[in-house]
Amino acid sequence: MGNTLKEMQDISGALQCYTRAIQINPAFADAHSNLASVHKDSGNIPEAIQSYRTALKLKPDFPDAYCNLAHCLQIVCDWTDYDTRMKKLVNIVGEQLEKNRLPSVHPHHSMLYPLSHSYRKAIAARHGNLCMEKISCLHKPVYTHPLDLKASGGRLRVGYVSSDFGNHPTSHLMQSVPGFHNVKEIEVFCYALSPDDGTSFRNKVTSEAEHLVDLSQIACNGKAADRINQDGVHILINMNGYTKGARNEIFALRPAPIQAMWLGYPGTSGASFMDYMISDAVTSPLELCEQYSEKLAMMPNTFFIGDHKQMFPHLAEKLIITKDGKVKETSAVINATDLGALLNTDDLRVIKTRTTNGYQCGDGIHEASILHTVVEFKNQQHNAMLSVLSKGQPFGTVGQTQVHSGVLIQQLNSKVASGEDPATNIAILTSRAMYNLPEDTVVYCNFNQLYKIDPATLKSWANILKRVPNSVLWLLKFPSVGETNVHQFIQQLGLSVNRVVFSPVATKEEHVRRGQLADVCLDTPLCNGHTTGMDVLWAGTPMVTMPGETLASRVASSQLTCLGCPELIAHTRQEYEDLAVKLGTDTQYLLTVRSKVWYKRLTSPLFNVKMYSRDLELLYQRMWQKYERTKNVDHLAAAAGGSNL
Predict the structure, then answer these.
(1) Is residue 363 predicted with pLDDT exceeding 50?
(2) Residue 416 C-alpha from the chain's centroid
C-alpha cells in the first residue's frame, strides 16, 4: 500500500504506511528502506540516512539500500570510507548488470561514481528496457509516421516534451526558444507533463509556442502518445531523460519518426527508441561517442543555452560602489536597467571610469570597450545608508531613486525575485557585507548543490586556498546539513573553518545577481555547474573548469568555449589549481579576464537565444532531410558557420 501511495505522490500516506509496517514488524528491512526513500525524496536526508542504515543492519546484503545510502551520503558530503564505498558500489552494479537485473544506481546518479562508460550506458539501457516492458501490456500497433511535410504545409513539426514548463531551471534556460523559432519553417508543439503552476514561465511557453498541450491531464501513456502522433509531429524532443516527472514510456511507443534528447538530462538515454543526442563537439566529441546509445547531432557553438539576457537585463550594467577611494569591483554594486538617474544625482561622485581597451588570450590582444563606472557617496549620510542596507533595511534613497536591498527583493516583488519578471525600474544594491564575505579578500565561489563535490575536488580547493592565503571559498547550504561535513573535511586538510563561507539558497534573481561578488568561480569537475555555470557567467564572473569524459563533466568547457574564454579550461588537476591561483594572486590578470568575461557574455553566442534557436532549427532540418533520404539516423557534424545572426 505504501508503494502505491508513493507512486500516487501521496507522500504523507506512504509515510504513515511504512511507519505502521515498522511498528508491526521492526525487523522488516524493506519497510525501513521504503521509509528512507520517502524521506530522501522529501529532502529529509539525515532521516533517510538513518533509515537506510537500519535497513542494512537488518539485511546486510541489500543493494538498493546500500546504493541509495551512498547517494544520500554524497548529497551531504559525508565521505567516511569513501574509497571503500565507491569500490563496493561499482561491484554491486557490475554484478547486477551481469545478472541482467535493474541496477540499484539510478542513471541520473551514475555520473557521480567511478563507473565505466559501458556501465553507465548499460544502467541507462536497463531503464530504457523497463519502459519498453511497461508499454508492452498496451498491445498498441506500430504508429504510421509522416513521410514528408505535405500535411504540415511544408513546415517541420517539432514537439518539446517536458515536465518542467514552469518554475524550474530547464525553463529558466529555454523558455524563449519556442517564441524565437521561425513560424514560417517550424510548427512548435510543447507537451507539458506537469500541470500549470501559474508562473510566468509556464505562461510564456503557453503564449509563445504555437501549441501547448497539457499531457498531465492524459495519464495513460498510450493515449498521450496517440495525441502526439495525431498531431503529425516530425521530431519529438525528450527534455527529461531520467529526471523527476519523466514519461519515457511515451517515447518508447515511438509516436514520431525522429526522437532526440536535448538539454534537460546530462547523459545518454541508453534507449533504442531515442535516435539523437543534441550536443556539440566540445561536450560530446566523436571520439567519445561510444558512451551514447544515440547518434550525436552537433550544434555549431554549444548545445547549452540560457535566457539570462531576457530574464535579467538589469545585470547588463552596474555601478561599482567604493568607499574611501578604494576600488574593489566585487565589494558592492548597484544594478538597474537604467543607471542614468543615479549618475545624474548630486549624491554620487563619479570618481573613476575604467575602460579596458584590450584583453589577451591565446591568439593575441583583442580590442574591446569595457566600461565600468565607479562611484562614491558624497556624504556620510549615504555611506551610513550603504551600511544599513547591507544589514537589512529594505531600501534607501539616492537623489530621487530608491535603492533596494539585494537580500530583500522577495518582499518588494516576488515575481522579480523568482525571475518571472525582469527587474525593470528597480535599482538593487548587492554587497559582500550582506553575505558576511570579507571585503579585501579573494572570494572563490561554487553555487552548485553539494552532491557535485567529491573529496578530490575539495582537496584541490583547499590547495588553492593554501596558496592564496588572503582568500575564502563561498558555498551554498545546498543542503544545509552538508555544511558541517565540509567544514570537518577542510579542518582535516589543515584549514580553519572560516576559510569556507556558507550562504542559504536564494531566490533565482538574487542567486544570479550575487555572483557578481565573487572574484572567481571554481567549477566542480565531477559534474559541472550547468545552469549555475550560465548564472555565474552572466554575472560576469570567470569560471575555471576541468573537463572529464562524461557529458556532465564537459558542459562548462562547452560554455566557456562558446563564450570565447577557452583559457579558463584546465586539462589536468594541477593546471586547474594553478589557473585558480594565478587568478587569485595576479591582480592585473584577474582584471583582464573579468573584463573579457563581462564583455563576451553580451557579444558571444552563449546568451543569444535568437541565434541559438535558428541554429537548432537548422539542425532539425538536417535531421529531417537525413530521414527523408534514408529513413536512418547517423552522426550529424556541426554545420559550418551556424546561422550567423
Answers:
(1) no
(2) 20
State the burial class of residue 260 (Cβ atoms within 10 Å of its Cβ: 0-12, 13-18, 19+). buried
Indicate the SS3 state at residue 423: coil
Strand partners, 237: 160, 260
Asked whether the predicted pLDDT for residue 386 surpasses 80, the reply is no
Q: At 372, list the grid cell.
A: 565600468
CA dihedral in degrees (388, 377, 472, 73; nearest 10)? 50
Rounded to whole angstroms, the Cα distance separating 442 from 521 reads 11
392 neighbors 408 (Cβ within 8 angstroms): yes
168 carries an active-site annotation: no
Please check the confidence at residue 644 and state whether its pLDDT lies above 60. no
Strand, helix or coil at 500? strand
Phi, psi of 520 (to 5 degrees): -145, 140
Separation of alpha carbons 73 and 595, rounded Å: 39
Written as nine digits, the cell of 283 is 561536450
pLDDT in tens, 267-307: 999 999 999 999 999 999 999 999 999 999 999 999 999 99
Residues pairing with 158 in the sheet? 188, 235
Other beta carbons within 10 angstroms of residue 359's beta carbon come to: 22
The residues facing 381 across adjacent strands are none
User: Rounded to the nearest 5°, which phi and psi values hold at 129?
Assistant: -65, -35
Q: Is the pLDDT of residue 482 over 80?
A: yes
Catalytic residue among 32, 71, 108, 382: 108
